[in-house]
Amino acid sequence: MAERIRRLKLEVIALGLACRDPRVPWYAKLIAGCVVGYALSPIDLIPDFIPVLGYLDDLVVVPLGIVLALRMIPPEVMADCRAHSGSAVADRRPGRVAAGVIVAVWLLLFAAGLSLVLSAARS
């Protein structure tokens, strides 16, 4: 199981690299970018604390998205990206920009929720 998870992570990283490749069509970049974003985002369709269903979306949505993206990306591009994904893992630094975006989204959602609660309390 641990080996499958490691391979899945490398595939997501390879898709992220493919998003930057000029040989990939824009629509494939869009799909691959959404898959990578969903796989790396702490925000899920179904929160992980919900028994069984919480992890089921990760086990279904991410692999199906990967399969869809792989069908749109030229095989030679994916071969190159897979070859570079191992070194990309070793060279990875914490993504401060990505963390900042995630924190900003959470703060905006919190502010919107608080605004709704306060406006409902005034009514």
Structure description:
It is a single chain. This protein is 79% helix and 0% strand. By secondary structure, it is an all-alpha fold. The chain folds into 2 domains: 2-92, no CATH class; 95-123. Helix 1 packs across helix 3 (53-72), helix 1 (2-19) crosses helix 4 and helix 2 packs antiparallel against helix 3 (53-72). It is elongated, with a radius of gyration of 18 Å. It is found in: Endomembrane system.
Task: Give the overall average pLDDT.
Answer: 83
Order of SSEs, N→C? Answer: HHHHH
Q: What is the CA–CA distance across the termini?
A: 53 Å
Rg, Å, rounded:
18 Å
State the secondary-structure class: mainly alpha
Total count of helical runs of at least 4 residues: 5
Number of strands: 0
Protein name: DUF1232 domain-containing protein
Domain DUF1232: 28-64
Subcellular location: Endomembrane system
Membrane topology: Multi-pass membrane protein
For this entry, give a set of tags.
about 120 residues; mainly alpha; 2 domains; about 80% helix; about 0% strand
Q: What's a quick, concise take on this entry?
A:
This protein has 123 residues and is an all-alpha fold. Helix content is 79%, strand content 0%. It is a multi-pass membrane protein.
Secondary structure topology:
Blueprint: H1 2-19, H2 26-40, H3 53-72, H4 75-91, H5 96-122
